[in-house]
Amino acid sequence: MSAVRLLVGTRKGLFILTSDGARRDWDVAGPHFAGWEVYHCQGSPAAPDRLYASQSTGWFGQIIQRSDDGGRTWEAVGNQFPYDGLPGTHQWYDGTPHPWEFKRVWHFRPSPSDPEAVYAGVEDAALFRSADGGRTWTEVSGLRKHPSGGAWAPGAGGMCLHTTLMDPARPERMFVAISAAGVFGTEDAGRTWRPLNRGLRSEFMPKPDAEVGHCVHRIAMHPDRPRTLFMQKHWDVMRSDDAGESWREVSGNLPSDFGFAIAVHAHEPETVYVVPIKSDREHFPPDGRLRVYRSRSGGDEWEALGEGLPQSHCYVDILRGAMAVDTLDACGIYFGTTGGQVYGSRDAGDTWAPIVRNLPAVLSVEAQTLA
Amino acid sequence: MIRVILPLELQRLAAAEREVRLDVAGAVTQRTVLDALEARHPVLRGTIRDPVTKRRRPFLRFFACGDDLSLEESDAPLPEAVARGTEPLRIVAAIAGG
User: Fold this and answer.
1) How large is the average pLDDT for residues B9-25?
2) Chain A residues in contact with B94 (beta carbon < 8 A)
3) Contact flag A59-B60 (C-beta cutoff 8 Å)
């Protein structure tokens, strides 16, 4: 009997939502780490009960928690993320140099084959790797030492490495996204990196099509099509068909092309989901109507999906890490809101229902499909 | 015996009581007390002071005997009442947030 487990990171703890394959009735466990922010929790594809969670606060800093029983019990592991060598400076909001300082872990990418191996994307933007289940962390420093590193600058949410993608057939090929530097790619497991931002255009920048400086909010990939990438940029929904070498806009008929989250259907590589947000000044859905938009053609043409979602007086936001899909035959899709709701669809977005309504603001959602 | 009072979050994180009692050999300073605390509860490393620079985290303060000792040198002796164990060293988290 299959089951689905949702890992929901919030402003005040981690919640774990579980259901059988029918996905009608959900058990809600938590909060784990009550009172702490959990930016992300992710399971190992190689050992699904191995979870990694990022627990942090401004008071007490960063804790990394690890579970080997699907989140019932936890063990704090290594919380030191030393930058390689003298960290140097990046650019601050006002354009002045600012020392690189570790603040928190935004994102985990466990290895597809080794439960002990995991990448962590952090703020200030850098990539770290652990080969011992999170006990020790070593910077993958070729990324931050790219010649453009000193010119990277934070977005409003901080200068964070918030997304990593890995080609499942070639794990040495990875993509990362940094706000507000852009997308970078490696073909050699992190030794060398290149900016992959050709085709992006950000009007707020002095040079709108510069090689780096773009506020990429999220990137997504279908595992069967690792050369096709989708992006929700600050403004604009984008697509690449050449592993990030070039991008084209596919915003099409979206009511707003601002947003944070983007996801790809588990079985249809050309079916993509976004949640349009009104603007970068008004972080809520257009017209107060919460609607997911789905394209079945890889972008350009989008349909609104609102059945079961609030269609009036809704002013929540859906953050960049807060949407995920399961891999059951009828693809399930889930997202969390800053209002503390987690919504789920058992039919690829046609209809929605709340799973839980009153959690703290949701920062991230991951879906595990369990045998 | 040195007494240290932890904020609630760190009590939970370390699965410790509100008051932790520690043996400290030699001079009783912020540094030696925190070294002993972290040795007893390794999970607290990095939560009170930076693990590399050993600087106090900005939203935490150290109080004892009615005084704010946060800006004292980390190698300065703590008050004698703390060293004798008649008064605790209090680690206090700023009241902030939502």
Assistant:
1) 96
2) 59
3) yes
Domain boundaries, chain A: 38-361
- Is there a domain that residue B30 lies in? yes
Nearest chain B residue to A78 by CA: give it.
Answer: B43
Residue pLDDT, tens place only, A268-302 = 999 999 999 999 999 999 999 999 999 999 999 99
Given CA atoms A93, A98, A103, A106 in this order, what sign does their dihedral have?
A: positive
In angstroms, the separation between the Cα of residue A103 and the nearest Cα of chain B is 11
Residue B85 lies in a domain: yes
The verdict on A57 touching B (C-beta cutoff 8 Å) is: yes
Contact B43 A63 (CB under 8 A): yes
CB of B43 within 8 Å of any CB in chain A?
A: yes
Query: What is the b/e burial string over A139-157, where b = at least 16 CB atoms within 10 angstroms of the residue's CB?
Result: bbbbbbbbebbeebbbbeb
Mean pLDDT of chain B: 94
The verdict on domain A38-361 having CATH code 2.130.10.10 is yes
C-alpha to C-alpha distances, A292 to A305, A309, A349, nearest whole angstrom = 5, 9, 8
Average pLDDT, rounded, for chain A: 97
**pLDDT in the model for residue B97:** 59
The answer to whether position B33 is within a domain reads yes
ipTM of the modeled complex: 0.93
Amino acid letter at A331?
C
Work out how many domains chain B is built from and give that number: 1
Structure tokens at B51: 């693990």
Taking the CA of residue B45 and the nearest CA in chain A, the distance in Å comes to 8
For residue B33, give its domain range: 2-93
Chain A residues with CB inside 8 Å of B47's CB?
60-61, 63
| Residues from chain B contacting residue A36 (CB–CB below 8 Å) | 9
Confidence of residue A157 (pLDDT cuts 50, 70, 90): confident
